[in-house]
Amino acid sequence: MQSAWSSPAMGALALAVALASAFPAAQDSAAKRPDLSGFWVNQYTPNLSVALGGEPPFTAFGAERWRTVDTSKDPTAICLPVGPSRGFTAPFPFLLVQGADTIGILFEYQSIWRAIYMDGRTHPDDVAEYPYFMGHSVGRWEGSILVVDTIGIDERSWLDTAGHEHSAQLRLTERFEKTGPDRMQWTVIYDDPVYFTRPWSITRTFTRGKPDDRLLPYTCNENNKDVEHLQPHQPNLNYKHVPEPAGTKPPPKPPGPDQNLESR
Fold first, then answer.
1. Mean pLDDT of 199-217
2. 3-state secondary structure the chain
3. Which of 41, 199, 232, 256 could form a disulfide with 191 if both were Cys (CB 3.0 to 4.6 A apart)?
4. Residue-wise pLDDT tens digits, 244-258
5. Confidence band, pLDDT 50/70/90 cuts, at residue 29
């Protein structure tokens, strides 16, 4: 005679109990995630090399583009939108709206928005065919840290005000970590084999705005009234590129895995 403990019914019951016991753990994990929502003020960084402590590890091509950059050709001068890097280093605040499946970021700068998909999706196969200035972003939680992977960023954007450029192959890996009730640390890794010989990163700090702060309207065409009179300006013509010695080790990366989110 078959034991009652080995019957299909008991097996189903055991599975149900196991699944039920897993839900509180998942709920506890979600409950520990910080609420990043709110009005945040950037740490203005017009030149990424200042935060890095020197120029990025340029390829020969990237170094020549930096040496000859003409700041009168700033894409924002003709009202092209910024990308994530410049959006988070410009002197304008942003509003973060956190949901379970999507995190929205509303930038005062150019009144542009960004969506971070948190529902487990991967980047679309045709993302390179339809680049967007903010790119396509997917995220996940590593404990209390939000990790975001972004590709498909329009190569017409600049990484900062100074004119550091990038290619369509740029990949950003960002980590948002709340370090206090009114402070959030943002660490970003830049990975672009066309412009840089290896990935490199910077860390900035966002501070919470005042309770009555609000995003103000920004209409680019009203602000840029004298574009036709911009004069060529190439401040880096004396820049001398010195490649890193072979075998140079990159600086330590932020804690936690940094593999592509698509492999998760």
1. 97
2. CCCHHHCHHHHHHHHHHHHHHHHHHHHHHHHCCCCCCEEEECCCCCCHHHHHCCCCCECHHHHHHHHCCCHHHCHHHHCCCCCHHHHCCCCCCEEEEECCCEEEEEECHHHCEEEEECCCCCCCCCHHHCCECCCEEEEEEECCEEEEEEECECCCCCCCCCCCCCCCCCEEEEEEEEEECCEEEEEEEEECCCCECCCEEEEEEEEECCCCCCCCCCCHHHHCCCHHHCCCCCCCCCCCCCCCCCCCCCCCCCCCCCCCHHHC
3. 199
4. 887 766 655 544 444
5. low
